[in-house]
Amino acid sequence: MKPPADRGSLALGAYVYAVLAFIIVPLVIVIPMSFSQNDYLAFPPSGFTLKWYSEYFDSRQWRAATWLSVQVALLTALCASVIGTAATYAMIRGRSRLVTAFQILLIGPIIVPHIALAVGLYLFFQTIGLSGTIPGFVLAHTVLTLPFVVFTMAAALAKVDANLEAAAMSCGATRFQAFRLVTLPLVLPSLASSALFAFIISFDEPVVSFFLSGVRQKTLPRRMFEDIEQNLTPVIPAIATLLIVLSILILLGAHVLRSRSVTR
Amino acid sequence: MTEARRSHFWHSDGRRLSGLSTLLLLLPFFAIIAFVFVYPILQLLVISILEPHPTLENYARVVENPVHMRVLMRTLWTATLVTALSVVLGFPVAYYMSRAKGTVAALVAVCVILPLWSSVLVRTAAWSFLFQRNGLINSALMALGLTSQPFKLLYTQSAVVIAMTHVLLPFMILPIYGALRSIPDDYGRAAAVLGATRLRTFLEVILPLSLPGVVSGSLLVFLTALGFFITPALLGSPQEMMISTLVSKQIREVLDWPFAAALVGVLTVFVTLLAIIFSKTLRFDRLMGNAS
Amino acid sequence: MNIASATQSASGASIRISRLEKRFGAVSAVDGVDIDIAAGEFIALLGPSGSGKTTILMSVAGFEFPTSGSIHVDSEDVTYVPSNRRNLGMVFQNYTLFPHMSILDNVAFPLKMRGLRAAERHARAEAALATVRLAGYGHRRPNELSGGQQQRVALARAIVYQPRVLLMDEPLSALDKNLREDMQLEIKRLHAELGITVIFVTHDQSEALTMADRIAVLKDGKIQQIGPARQLYERPTNLFTAGFIGEMNFVGVTVESVGDNVSVTLPWGETWRLPATAAVEPVAAGEAAVLAVRPERLQLGAGSGGQVITVTLSDIVYAGAALLLIGRLPDGTEMRARIPGASQLCALAPGDVASFTVPVEAMLLYRGSRR
Ligand SMILES: Nc1ncnc2c1ncn2[C@@H]1O[C@H](COP(=O)(O)OP(=O)(O)OP(=O)(O)O)[C@@H](O)[C@H]1O
Ligand SMILES: [Mg+2]
């Protein structure tokens, strides 16, 4: 007697792989297209060229947009991870009724549609002259990325025994020394990975950037949006490929950090 | 304030921070949220009812004008359709993922998580390549002899629904996966040994126990879909706007701020109410907890 | 189920496990196991962690298909029959009551799967709850019950459809000690009332010894010994079982000659003559062997009918019903003795040298050497 063939599992597997193809094919399809010699984006791609990449790297406009996005994303990662970690630490170790308010406000930027925040900020920042400025972008993106930092840090800090700090303080450390010498090293990998996620969210953020960008100060997503909307040149697959590679690097980085972490 | 409470405000006790330090650490968070989130949204809501003079006229325009009403209904319908499609496509993937082990599990996880962390613009652009007259889909259909003329796919509502489902699918899969993972294998075994077929085991045990994940994922997808901007703006038809594209048009072309604010108000209030009603089942942390 | 077995449903089924083998990659979880279980028998699978107990049970239940070998229930080959068609009862370690159903619906679940009408299945579920003395708890939710009560519900759910075999994988290990003893009695009582065949996995040997008709001792996926508790305890067939079940003293010896008697040389040079029946396994002259004796078989003082040993005492432990004496033989081997009725022995102190008599019939001889 042989084990019976498991048709149910086979059917489930086939369905699942079809859905996974639906998820992943549109993403990887841009990679061969970015090397195609066709000037218009026809399928199948033909030939091999790097000219779309050099067009991207040689264009002053694309470079400016990319540089702006890099600056904004770096500053956002810094602000969000510092503010988010401080707040999360207060939430977990603190004593205050503000903690409840904190938890409610935290969900806000996730729930409220980005278009609503974008329009609100567009109006507000124009009146105070922050529209199209680096501080303006950074403030907006910090709000959008804070919840992700807090979730990551809350998970990490919850795993650090509060008694560790009490022990350090009983050895004569101040509260700040206890945090810096005991807790911080334990949650550092999570802190770094939350900064990575804040970076990529900001770098790829399209909606708020769309409304806050000025005529000259345009982030990379905003430039891409215009390009896709107006003429859809083959530079887009090249940039898309680079962005996918960046996402892969960020996820790999987060994965490495997580496997290093003591407080997994 | 009692003596003990007062001293807790000024002093920490080893395990807990003092009230003062708690306050100082939370201050930057509250400042930025108040300044960059709460104030701008409130300002819009105020404009929507105070300009040009205290009135509900702007809201009346949303519901009384059949064109605008159609935009609202289309938005609701699209979000519903995207949510339903995501459940149908996402649940089996989540289920498979929760049972898979080793390399297969890692492969499936990468397929779900990589898109989540790659740019929405990249994914939308990819669909606009696929949907073009001479894109992959039309080329494939013609090569297979299924059609002699390319279909018009780009700038249709179907394109918007398909691409939005693609973009939002991970938000459905991850919460369901989280719920399924927390069901011990023994429940399925117990049902089987008690006489349930695999279908009954699924319907009577696995599905009810994973329902919180389904509800949470559906809300997340539905709420996000309602305010989705990039995909409808790039793949949709200008004749078939969604609420977000209508808002954008009011601001960038018509410059009708009070009306745009009212549209944003309708969207924000509706979304917030839904979130409050279902606040118990929404589990946002699931999205990050398993992110890598 | 055919008609013949349905009419017998009050009694248990026989089970035959033959040459069962299960590999996970390179790991051999079960390695050629044969067990014949009579109808209505209560059998325990006992062994250290990772010895393959769960894997055997999972194969019987139909959750694992074996790499080779077969499983018959009442002469029907069920090796590859899906678990939902095997009609077995099973109780899991962590209760596994469905948390979204009431207690009554949990117990009625298998009846629902068998297409019974609501009224009848509720009546039968109530009756099953009554057999585990939980009548009236039906409307509650699983999380409103204590661990012991939940496990009784799981038991009710496993017997409500009158399966002829009940499988249990460490069903009591999540309970605390007192509850565990209550549940042991409960399970024994149900077994006696229903006449059901039971396979009970445990790594608690006293549980296995008190509950089971026969015990199968496993190690590394292989059966070491199968037998009733008394046989396992009094004449373990190999060194592993001898060391695994209960307490045992071991002394390494050398076999001098084998015949009507076996003579062995002890580490300190003395030579003892043992009856041939002492050799549990065949031994050969000139080879190393191990002499084993239970601590409670040692008698304090030099007497007749056995060999006398002298032990330098290191610890004297008052253990309630008996006194535990721990000391060393002349070569340094540790020796333990349990002496009942201990009050008159209080004169002994650590450092004293005491003599013990080892009755001839208490000695067991095994091939090989300890470590
Ligand atoms: N699904 C599996 N994949 C790989 N190896 C497995 C699997 N299940 C069991 N094993 C291995 O098979 C061996 C036997 O496992 P099994 O669970 O049957 O032991 P056990 O006697 O029930 O132990 P315990 O007392 O710890 O429950 C172990 O070495 C285990 O690591
Ligand atoms: Mg086990």
Automatic annotation (TrEMBL), chain A:
Gene Ontology CC: plasma membrane
One Pfam family in the UniProt entry: BPD_transp_1
Principal place of residence: membrane
Keyword Ribosomal protein found: no
Superkingdom: Bacteria
InterPro entries the UniProt entry points to: MetI-like, MetI-like_sf
Similarity remark: Belongs to the binding-protein-dependent transport system permease family.
Record-given protein name: ABC transporter permease
Species in which this protein is naturally found: Bradyrhizobium manausense
Lineage: Bacteria, Pseudomonadati, Pseudomonadota, Alphaproteobacteria, Hyphomicrobiales
Automatic annotation (TrEMBL), chain B:
Keyword Transport: yes
Membrane topology: Multi-pass membrane protein
Gene Ontology BP, a term: transmembrane transport
Coiled-coil positions: none
SUPFAM superfamilies membership: MetI-like (SSF161098)
Main location: membrane
Location relative to the cell: Cell membrane
PROSITE patterns: ABC_TM1
TM segment ranges: 20-42, 76-97, 104-126, 159-180, 201-234, 254-278
Any Pfam family the entry gives: BPD_transp_1
UniProt KW keywords: Cell membrane, Membrane, Transmembrane, Transmembrane helix, Transport
GO terms under cellular component: plasma membrane
Protein origin, superkingdom: Bacteria
ABC transmembrane type-1 domain ranges (all copies): 72-278
Homology family: Belongs to the binding-protein-dependent transport system permease family. CysTW subfamily.
Listed name of the protein: ABC transporter permease
